[in-house]
Amino acid sequence: MASISCHRAVPSNKVSLSSSSSALFTTPLSRSSLFSTVSVPSRASRGRISCRISSTSAPPPPSSVNGPAKAGMKDFLHISDFDKATIMKILDRAAEVKAVIKSGDRTFLPFKGKTMAMIFAKPSMRTRVSFETGFFLLGGHAIYLGPNDIQMGKREETRDVARVLSRYNDIIMARVFAHQDILDLAKHATVSVINGLTDYNHPCQIMADALTIIEHVGRLEGTKVVYVGDGNNIVHSWLLLAAVIPFHFVCACPKGFEPDAKTVLKAQQAGISKIEITNDPQEAVRGADVVYSDVWASMGQKEEAAHRRQVFQGFQVDENLMKLAGPKAYFMHCLPAERGVEVTDGVVEAPNSIVFPQAENRMHAQNAIMLHALGL
């Protein structure tokens, strides 16, 4: 039996700070990455009680609830924070775990005894249900925190939210507006942080998309993916994936609605994929393996919806555009779709539309991401 001895440290006017640094990401592509690693200092304490446990058996692994450093844990904030081997390993794991879940086997419970805090600054059906259901199916418990539950950055500072939730949970997922919010969460949290969407990027969606393309086309490398519409956060994540995995990515968008220039340059300078930004959707889709669309006015842009509908005339994915792509081209959409606006009802319901397998794969890709983040 283990014996426990405790003593209280004598308070002192001197406070010593011990810090442990942990890389937020695994295997950055280059030193010139847009995003840098952050060291998370541990909290100093006065007059703390220290306990020594003597036992012949090895001590249990540290629990995230007790607020340790992030050693061995990984955040998932941008796809380009990982190398090709890691991304493909996560996608392979997603396929494996999907097969287990689809088989009806409920004995694979790697998240048993673990909890996840889900922060939603903006609502979502797919993100909430896919994360919550996926975490539950693998044995864990997810806690939904809606826009009015925290009001992160308004009611309470992001750094305080990160440190408090880290002491209650094993992992944090956040769907926020400002990209800086997810960076601040990861900086101050002592558990893994998963990017469920920001105004800048949507890495979990694109991992699900990659899994879907592998399932239907048979491969991701060497495919031609053509995105038609606004150069938004979905496009940014496609570009960051193209900086890691070799394929041909084309963004066809109206003038003035191109993706972030620095992200385009990052993808091009990686020298991995062929990257094109064009204003001609008809020419862009020729020979595509996948034609991809998204709403023209995202959440927070609805006041621009009427103006955007005028500017985006000619960028609707309709049956004629899909014919130009060719008979083997699949249609993808991250949903929700405004049928009759960025895409016709006929295209969404066509036999070569894979929007619903794509939606399902959010859960499987995210399960694999969380397994990787937790080192399971």
Automatic annotation (TrEMBL):
The enzyme's E.C. designation: 2.1.3.3
Protein's UniProt keywords contain Cell membrane: no
EC class of the enzyme, as a word: transferase
Limits of the Aspartate/ornithine carbamoyltransferase carbamoyl-P binding domain: 74-215
GO molecular function, one term: ornithine carbamoyltransferase activity
A GO biological-process term: L-arginine biosynthetic process via ornithine
Catalytic activity: carbamoyl phosphate + L-ornithine = L-citrulline + phosphate + H(+)
Keyword vocabulary terms for this entry: Amino-acid biosynthesis, Arginine biosynthesis, Chloroplast, Plastid, Transferase, Transit peptide
Domain Aspartate/ornithine carbamoyltransferase Asp/Orn-binding residues, every copy: 221-372
Main location, first listed in the record: plastid
GO cellular component term, pick one: chloroplast
InterPro entries named among the record's database cross-references: Asp/Orn_carbamoyltranf_P-bd (IPR006132), Asp/Orn_carbamoylTrfase (IPR006130), Asp/Orn_carbamoylTrfase_sf (IPR036901), Asp_carbamoyltransf_Asp/Orn-bd (IPR006131), Orn/put_carbamltrans (IPR002292), OTCase_ArgI (IPR024904)
Subcellular location: Plastid, Chloroplast
Source superkingdom: Eukaryota
Family under the similarity heading: Belongs to the aspartate/ornithine carbamoyltransferase superfamily. OTCase family.
Xref: NCBIfam families: orni_carb_tr, PRK00779.1
PANTHER family tied to this protein: ORNITHINE CARBAMOYLTRANSFERASE, MITOCHONDRIAL, ORNITHINE TRANSCARBAMYLASE, MITOCHONDRIAL
Name listed for the protein in its UniProt record: ornithine carbamoyltransferase
Source organism of this protein record: Salix udensis
